Amino acid sequence: MEKVIDTTTGKYQGIETNNGVKFMGIKFGHPRRFKRAVPYRAKDKLNFATRAGTQPMQEAALDHDYSDIKFSEDCLNLDLFTPNPNGKHPIVIEFYGGGFLHGGTLDEVMPWLNNGKVIHIIPNYRLGLFGWANIADGDTNVGLSDQILAIKWVIDNADKFGGDVDDISLVGHSAGGKSIAALMASNSNVLDHIKKVVLFSGSLQTIRDKETSKKVLERFCSDNKLTSKDLFNLTDDGLLLAQNKAIGNHLATNWFGPIIDDDLISDNWQDVLIDRQKRTNFKTLVEAGSNELIQLENFSINELKNSILEDLFGINSKVILKQLPDDYQKSELLNLIGEAMYTYPADRTAQLLKDNGEVYGNYSNVLDGRHGGNVEYLATKNADLPIDQRKNQKFYLQLIMDFIVNGKPYNDNLKYEWPLFDDNQLVMKLDPDDISSVSMISHQWIQNLPWQTYKL
What are the boundaries of the signal sequence (predicted)? Predict the structure, then answer.
């Protein structure tokens, strides 16, 4: 099988696998500090895409366990698996999660996409201050523009690696799902090429106003006694150390995200999203767990109320607390935090999109319904699951792949049809050993929570 592809950013040799060819570390962009990247300039020589590319700057860069991995601001590369470079296969671009602070191509979160049916691409994008800061004399939405540049590379080179440019899906978990939702609501015409999106525990909740993003930056500068101009002159490690110092023990997963800048994202982003849906007929599968933040159960009720809530929601923490009775228990608060962060935004996204296109909802109870539980469930080897869960996992995986490949989460061999999310608000309920359809109409959602869940 052919193992060399000649792309707009260079010629790359990959590694043949059992069911295709894998390329690692393909360059797609040149980053500039706090500036949107430009396309990578092709080199005449043959590049060996056989080992992990440079990873985005993050806390792991200071960990000696990763001494054989390079971390840098110059991290705009992608991994690509293709069943056959000479074929014509559906393309899936996966954006990883990690709270806009962690992540990369080192660990494959969705290995099931390397199944020989689709082309699976995972781009790196800049994280934290490097990609999502709002700095004077810098650009906004740098990380988002990295993602757009990666998508454009895929479109420009689809025929080189056996991809169908008319069948591109975006799949993301957590911050990856939030990124995809923002991309679809952005002003970039590149996103008109997308046919399907899969949002695992992440949707439209992190688009924030400029004022909030500026206050986040002020916090970092104040904690480090720096000006925003100083941030341009720090080394990669120096900027990362400043970031880590400001974060400290905070749960900073919501401190960064896409910004309404009246450039890539406009104040009327909901209208932009609906207009794109009407023009392109993209289809959406949106998922959330039943107890997304159960992993915070080790925190005391006072820590949750006085620290965690502020980190996750800013001034909107007052809205969350108003939903609770005076004598609420920690379990009630935990469940409500998870709903506000993930489950309610997923439902709200489905509600927004249901009148103008095909939307499918998923309410997951696997692995306690925790954040990322269904993605972990899909990635678990079938033989490692309890016997009574193995058939259910195969069904779920088949339905997800049917949506990605055919645009419908339906298979003639299964005795279940995933319902459309419409006025009846039916979703697929995923239990460890069963799949069923339930309506979310009677669910009591949070009242008066803004679309922008994190606000300062």
Answer: none
